[in-house]
Amino acid sequence: MYTDGLNYASMNVGAWKLFEKLRNQNADLFIVSHKTPLSAINKVDLIQPARIWIEENLGNIPEFSMDHVFFEQSRLLKVKRIASLGLTHYVDDLLEVLQEEDYPQNIKSFWLSNVAKNLSSDKVTAVETLDSIIDYV
Question: To pair with 107 at 20 to 30 A between CA atoms, which of 28, 57, 77, 125?
Fold first, then answer.
């Protein structure tokens, strides 16, 4: 079950280094997720366990606020939320999000993936770890 797996989830390699760099730049950190409220098969709450994991793992960052965490019910709504926040940089593990027609073109975008090692374009840079982004911010 998806929610049970969260007990074993850990932060991506380099996350704390990136957060430290962002903190030094007084940057805001947002999380925008595409997550339906309930799983399709057994109607388990997907959002509350994710919120708990985020609070437990990011709650000790003074500049981080749960008010900056958004769960959208569709990929299109996720892209609209991203656009509404006025972000300069954005990271996603789904390339499809970064390639959506309505995705903001002025955002420096990173695809967090271990399968596309050297993909880079004007719009998207593939990275395997979050600390790989440090030189871009």
Answer: 57
